[in-house]
Amino acid sequence: MESNLFDLSGKTALITGGSRGIGLAVAKGLARHGANITLVARTEKQLEQAQRQIQEETNKHTWTFPFDLAQTDQIEDLFENIIKETKGINILVNCAGITRRAPAEDINLNDWGQVIDVNLTAVFAISQAFCRHRKHIGAGGKPATLMAGKIINIGSLMCHAARPTNTAYASSKGGILMLTKSLAVE
Ligand SMILES: NC(=O)c1ccc[n+]([C@@H]2O[C@H](COP(=O)([O-])OP(=O)(O)OC[C@H]3O[C@@H](n4cnc5c(N)ncnc54)[C@H](OP(=O)(O)O)[C@@H]3O)[C@@H](O)[C@H]2O)c1
């Protein structure tokens, strides 16, 4: 019997920060293995370019949602809109990330808050919406496999290591490590 463990046909993956860099590479990789793709980032033009590239290279459907993940109180609404449009998300890749570099004694709380909001709070909020969505799909005595979803969080060397002038980023990535473990045990 032949089975292809990497076949993602019929699945849809949501990649935050999928408009460029690591997120775009992940999106293309998932699309090459059969997944349809949903991208979230702020810059509309870059999202459109990424969408074109993915569709041309892989022929997989790609939706784009321009959104600033620092608006953490609007993430639930964003996720609802995504579900309406895509009809369901199977894989969530939390890749969007930023840094604001400054010595710890100089960093202002606005910059600190931006980094924590985008790199950590937004990851929690969208993961929470995703988990509720998968549970809802599996509710009502349907097989547990229907609930199954995957969350992939992009960490960093700085989940573990500290470097000067990157306190907010390191704190957010250290948080990502424990958020990932906490979600995994639940
Ligand atoms: N590059 C590295 O060497 C490295 C090393 C370790 C870990 N990482 C991690 O890998 C991830 C991706 O890094 P990268 O180097 O590929 O970054 P990048 O090229 O700067 O791309 C960041 C992505 O996130 C999006 N983004 C940033 N702020 C956002 C916001 N407020 N709301 C929505 N989307 C936002 C960007 O689009 P917009 O700007 O248009 O919003 C873009 O799509 C990050 O989590 C980073 O911490 C990177």
Uncertain spans: none
- Classify the helix fraction into a percent range: 40-55%
Q: How many strands, what sense, and barrel or not for the largest sheet? A: 5 strands, parallel
Helix and strand composition category: alpha/beta
Strand content: 5-15%
Radius of gyration: 17 Å
Distance N to C terminus: 34 Å
Detail the topology: elements first, then pairings.
Layout: E1 12-16, H1 21-32, E2 36-41, H2 44-58, E3 62-66, H3 75-86, E4 91-94, H4 109-138, E5 150-153, H5 167-185
Parallel strand pairs: 1-2, 1-4, 2-3, 4-5
Helix pairs in contact: 1-2, 3-4, 4-5
The protein binds NADP nicotinamide-adenine-dinucleotide phosphate (NAP).
Features:
Rossmann fold; 5 helices; binds NADP nicotinamide-adenine-dinucleotide phosphate; five-stranded parallel β-sheet; globular; alpha/beta; single chain
